[in-house]
Design a protein that fits this description.
about 400 residues
Length: about 400
């Protein structure tokens, strides 16, 4: 093993490769083509009488249900262009016209969406895929998929959309297929999925518990089995909005979700990809119910990383966010255990960890909590602060923070 490769293995901040892999386009393995069937352009909806528009709209939805193999960029170009133009026309039609989303249209819309979106995602052709370093596999059929997603969003957001009609077709099976697509490597698709699922969650009350349950299952499988799922960040963004809307007092099942799902999500090695969204969800819970602060902080201390300084820096950032909203009576319950860990971080041989811990002393609210409980906190912190101030090395900014901590 070369010296460079050895350094890469032990240094989490080292560049693992000098050259990024190029972006790859790959069609989905599910796509079935319709043989040699060639699509022909139908009349424009605006050119037919109002009484004939519904029938023509359904025909166009059927036409757009035909899927093509985009692995061959020159195959069936005419039919692909006919479908693309038809999708754009449908998008404009339901956006500009009222009263066109009648009950007979609903099953054909959902069938078109099913045919285009729901597919078996291809396995990654790079088993050592690193989302932080490697470019994702982009969906080859995106020229059609993007318009289908836009059309479905306009359909859900239309003033004419009736959830009582839609619930016949947008059911648990539909939501399950939608959640499976969050594992797509293409970030453009995951971004659309995030918005689509959020709209469905808002409009279909009967699907909410089912949706949360299956998001929990995805997270549990990710944490305890695979540690591979591309859409964790996007699902957490949706949950952040959901948590914000929780009624008080918070139900026991939601508290269990915080302790059994969100806290263990801090352990996977890919935490950096979704930590901002995860921390937001945790803080949302604490702003709703201050009594959850103690189990959350004790949970974070339980999962505190032992060998990854990059993760320690993230944990410290999240601890500061929590301390920003903590109630003084909750701070008293965790101060001793918490500051023992912070003291270790201040003494860390890794300068980024030590510096991030020292920045707590720049936070006025945290300083007020420390001053109110100085008889407990200072005996824990003083040895570390004194030790580093007496042998202070590093940049001027770090020295300034260290001296501030010891002065206070």
């Amino acid at each position: 093993m070369s010296a460079g490769a050895f350094v890469d293995k032990i240094d989490p901040f080292a560049k693992r490769s000098l050259k990024k892999r190029q972006k790859r386009s790959q069609g989905s393995s599910r796509y079935r083509t319709a043989g040699d069937q060639e699509l022909t352009a139908l009349p424009l909806l605006k050119d037919v009488a109002a009484g004939e528009q519904q029938e023509l709209l359904i025909k166009k939805l059927h036409q757009c249900s035909v899927v093509f193999d985009f692995l061959d960029p020159v195959a069936e170009l005419k039919s692909k262009e006919v479908k693309r133009a038809c999708l754009n026309e449908l998008l404009d039609f339901i956006t500009a016209n009222r009263g066109v989303l009648t009950e007979p249209v609903y099953p054909h819309v959902i069938q078109m969406v099913n045919s285009n979106l729901f597919r078996t995602l291809p396995p990654s052709d790079n088993p050592e895929f690193d989302p932080e370093e490697d470019d994702p596999t982009l969906e080859a059929s995106w020229p059609h998929l993007q318009i289908v997603y836009e059309f479905f969003l306009r359909f859900l957001e239309s003033p004419d959309f009736q959830p009582n009609l839609g619930k016949k077709y947008i059911d648990q099976k539909f939501v399950l297929h939608l959640l499976e697509l969050f594992d797509s490597e293409d970030p453009r698709e995951r971004d659309f999925l995030k918005t689509v699922l959020h709209r469905i969650y808002g409009k279909f009350l009967g699907l909410r518990a089912y949706t949360r349950k299956h998001i929990n299952n995805i997270f549990l499988r990710f944490v305890y089995e695979t540690e591979r799922f591309n859409g964790v960040g996007e699902l957490l963004e949706i949950l952040g909005s959901i948590i914000n809307g929780f009624a008080m007092p918070i139900k026991q099942e939601h508290k269990q979700f915080l302790v059994k799902i969100l806290l263990p999500l801090h352990t996977p090695k890919t935490l950096a990809l979704y930590h901002a969204q995860l921390a937001y969800c945790v803080v949302q819970f604490l702003e709703k119910d201050a009594t959850l602060t103690e189990p959350v902080l004790r949970g974070l201390l339980k999962y505190w990383p032992k060998t990854c300084s990059q993760k320690e820096v993230m944990y410290l950032g999240e601890i500061e966010e929590i301390l920003d909203v903590i109630e003084p009576n909750q701070f008293v319950k965790v101060q001793e255990t918490l500051f023992k860990q912070i003291s270790k971080c201040v003494s860390s041989p890794h300068f980024q960890v030590a510096e991030r811990a020292l920045y707590f002393w720049n936070n006025e609210y945290i300083m007020s909590l420390i001053e109110e409980n100085s008889n407990i906190v200072l005996p824990i912190m003083f040895p570390s602060l004194y030790r580093i101030s007496s042998r202070c090395h590093g940049d001027g900014g770090a020295q300034s923070v260290r001296s501030t901590g010891t002065r206070r």
